[in-house]
Amino acid sequence: MTETPVLRIDDLRGPPPRPLAWLRRHPVVIDVAVVLFACTPLAAALVLRAYDFGWWGWPLLGLTAGALLLRRRQPMAVLVVVALACAWSPLAQPGTGFPTIPTAFALYTVASRQSTVRALIGYGIGVAATVLATVPHSLAGEQPPRVALLDSFALIALVAGLIVRNRRDQQQRLLELVNERIEHAGLAERTRNAAEMHDVVAHALTMIVSLANGAASIRAKHPAKADAAVDRIAAVGREALAEMHRTLGLLRGADAGLDERLHRSGGNLPELEELVESVRATGITVSLTREGDQLPEDVALRQAVFRIVQESLTNTLRHAVSPSSVEVVVIHEHGRIEIRVEDDGGAAAAVHIPGNGLVGIQQRARAFGGTAESGPRPGGGWRTSAVLNAHRERRAEVHDG
Fold first, then answer.
1. Ordered domains of the chain (ranges, CATH)
2. CB of 99 within 8 A of CB of 144?
3. Residues whose CB is less than 8 angstroms from the CB of residue 293 and which lie 6 or more positions away in sequence, other chains included
4. Of 44, 95, 187, 303, which has the fewest beta carbons less than 10 angstroms from its beta carbon?
5. Distance between CA atoms of 31 and 23, rounded to whole angstroms?
């Protein structure tokens, strides 16, 4: 089965180069590269510069590196951690300045993955961290590092992140538009196929009725012509059936939901045992009792029995108050099929307004010369019963759906 094609972002971009494709499959490599690029200069500065009591720079550098490895998961939290770690670093002192490279990478991640407002807030966090770094120096009477509200690294990171996010959002909007047009085109094609199937079936049925009437009227005088008309009826029926199967194949191939519904309809309906088992999965105890003869091979009759039981169980799941058990009984004796579905739901289940489901049960029963009724059980619960005549020719068709 084929479904309506859905485009992805990569379909709009085209295949990326192999090295880039490999890096996309292994994002941890990029994360490690970012950590090395951002933290190696700071580590070198800690080694080359002699600081009194500067040992705390190494734990802060390790915290910065670990946080940057997690920047994709929690961008804003990582930005706060990195900015504070850099603010408390011994590198943030007069003559050295604020360590801005790790903060710039964290800010880029926020700008490229979150909203513009959060990106601007992230930029403000970076500026606040540089101001925080000057406090200890001011308290010690030292000249604090200079604070620039328009830091070049932070601005580049902010602008680059916003450009990347806007481009991604634009591609996503384009992708949604293209997929929407594809879906509309598929719907138009399915509608055309359905109309074509209607025309084919209507034409074929008209010919069959006309040929059948003609064959009946001339059989006594021209039996050969009547036999030829019957043969033609069979040929037209086969052609219409083949055309209908072809069109249904197109419809099913373009709609997975329709394919599943058609697969579970007509002669492909599951057994009652499978239906009962699916209801048991909800936690309700369901018993199925079959008495008498097996059901006839009439597909329409079996379909009616299945749908009556199915709708009755559905009503129990929807309307019964805390039911613990349901009993399903199917009795076939002397061409009479009796169906009973009873649950032990609370008394409130008796307050029930008949809907389309119960009407459908009655229509299916009447189609086979029978009756159906639903109502509360004495003492609580709900009962749905139906009687079908297996030998009586149906007077009306009930569409399966």
1. 1-263 (no CATH), 268-389 (3.30.565.10)
2. no
3. 332, 333
4. 95
5. 10
- In this structure, the number of other CB atoms found within 10 A of the CB of residue 287 comes to 11
Task: Check: CB of residue 295 under 8 Å from CB of residue 332.
Answer: yes
pLDDT-based confidence at residue 263 (cuts at 50, 70, 90): very low
Residue 179's pLDDT is: 72
Contact 191, 198 (CB under 8 A): no
Sheet with 371-376, edge to edge strand ranges? 285-292, 325-333, 336-343, 382-389, 371-376
Alpha helix (H) residue ranges in 283-395: 299-319, 356-367
DSSP H or E run through 376 = strand 371-376
Higher pLDDT, 316 or 234: 316
Instruction: Identify the pLDDT of residue 331.
Output: 94
Q: What single DSSP character describes residue 380? A: S
What local confidence, expressed as pLDDT, does residue 396 receive?
43
Please check the confidence at residue 341 and state whether its pLDDT lies above 90. yes
With contact defined as beta carbons under 8 Å apart, do 319 and 376 qualify?
A: no
Q: What is the pLDDT of residues 6-54, one digit of tens each?
A: 555 555 555 667 887 787 788 888 888 888 888 888 888 777 766 555 6
**Res. 350 pLDDT band, cuts 50 70 90:** very low
State the greatest distance between any 2 C-alpha atoms of the chain, in Å, as a whole number. 126
* Residues above pLDDT 90, as percent of the chain: 15
The answer to whether 179 and 6 have CB atoms below 8 angstroms apart is yes
| Distances in whole angstroms, Cα of residue 12 to Cα of each of 170, 301, 343 | 12, 52, 55
Measuring CA to CA, which residue among 40, 160, 27 is closest to residue 106? 160
Compute the distance between CA of residue 203 and CA of residue 103 in angstroms, rounded to an integer: 74
Flag whether pLDDT at 167 surpasses 80: yes
Give the C-alpha separation, 398 to 167, whole Å. Answer: 54
Closest listed residue to residue 326, CA positions, set 310, 337, 307 = 310
Residue indicated by tokens 């292994």: 26
